[in-house]
Amino acid sequence: MSKKINMSFKTKIKIALLIILLLAGSYWYWWYDQTIKLRMEALQVVDDAESFTRIHSAIEVEFLRCQQFITQSEGDFGSFEYCTSFITWVNDNNLR
């Protein structure tokens, strides 16, 4: 003899609501976690962009300094070689 488990309608509704609540909570946690990850990634991209801007500005300043140094034609040979190499490097890499 097997017993039939007879659940009432209210019990079935409670179980269904509990399952729906667990699924909604799981989805919310996943969404929140993904949002935090995207926010951290966006902050890293902003930091990288700011760093790039600072580096690009420093390259521009050094490029202009080297151009002035070469046009003056005075100074030691090592600085002249550095400046010509630097200007060539900037032009070869399209940094200007």
Automatic annotation (TrEMBL):
Sorted alphabetically, the keyword list is: Membrane, Transmembrane, Transmembrane helix
Q: Give the transmembrane ranges.
A: 12-31
**Protein's recorded name:** Uncharacterized protein
Taxonomic source organism: Candidatus Doudnabacteria bacterium RIFCSPHIGHO2_01_FULL_43_23
